[in-house]
Amino acid sequence: MSLTQVGVAGKTAARFGVQKIPGRMAVAKIQHDLTPNMLPKRQVPRSGRIDPTPPNAAFQALEKVIFPFMRWYYPMSGQCEYGLRFDDWFYNQANDRDVGVALSRIDDIDLQLRNFRGFRAAQLAIERQVAPVEERWEEIVDEVRYCKPWYNQVRREKAEAEAWENY
């Protein structure tokens, strides 16, 4: 992916690359590239460590079961008609506080694109219109998950902090 495609995939994917698994959604590769120097000082854990932890086997099995359903449901959900990407729809700040922390860590251009898509979707819903066909995200496999790696990192840090508190 070149830096000229930043508007399509976002700055995170352009900087770190994309991990593609056949038949799955592409995920920006940040899990193995995170260092404390890349985050603002206020977001670096006290330990100074941001080590990726291997994903839970039960969670991976659950994801394999849920993904085909999401792949079927997402294009029919109506969010595609407004031009929202999967992460815009799935990771909602109103439902989970960790999403707000994850969104504070993503690159500015990804956040601005997300906000633009959200405002445009609200405007289209008010006007009872749909986005042009070329601006719809209907195929879930072709998307880059820009928020998922940051969200997972926040959840891991929260679990680590909770483990230290309960030690």
Write the layout of secondary structure elements.
Blueprint: H1 6-9, H2 11-16, E1 18-19, E2 26-28, H3 57-76, H4 86-90, H5 97-105, H6 108-127, E3 144-145, H7 148-165
Parallel strand pairs: 2-3
Antiparallel strand pairs: 1-2
Helix pairs in contact: 5-7
What is shown here, in short?
This protein is mainly alpha-helical and 167 residues long. It has helices at residues 6-9, 11-16, 57-76, 86-90, 97-105, 108-127, 148-165; strands spanning 18-19, 26-28, 144-145.
Describe the structure in your own words:
The chain contains seven helices and three strands. The chain has helices at residues 6-9, 11-16, 57-76, 86-90, 97-105, 108-127, 148-165; strands at 18-19, 26-28, 144-145. A three-stranded mixed beta sheet has the order 1-2-3. The protein is globular. The protein starts with 5 loop residues before the first helix and ends with a helix.
Low-confidence stretches: 1-9, 31-36
Radius of gyration, in Å, reads 17 Å
Helix content: 40-55%
**Strands ordered across the widest β-sheet:** 1-2-3
Tell me the distance between the termini: 43 Å
| Tally of separate helices | 7
SSE arrangement, N to C: HHEEHHHHEH
Q: Which outline best applies?
A: globular
Q: Characterize the main sheet.
A: 3 strands, mixed
Mean pLDDT over the residues = 76
Strand content of the residues, in percent? under 5%
Structural category = mainly alpha
How many runs of DSSP E, i.e. beta strands?
A: 3
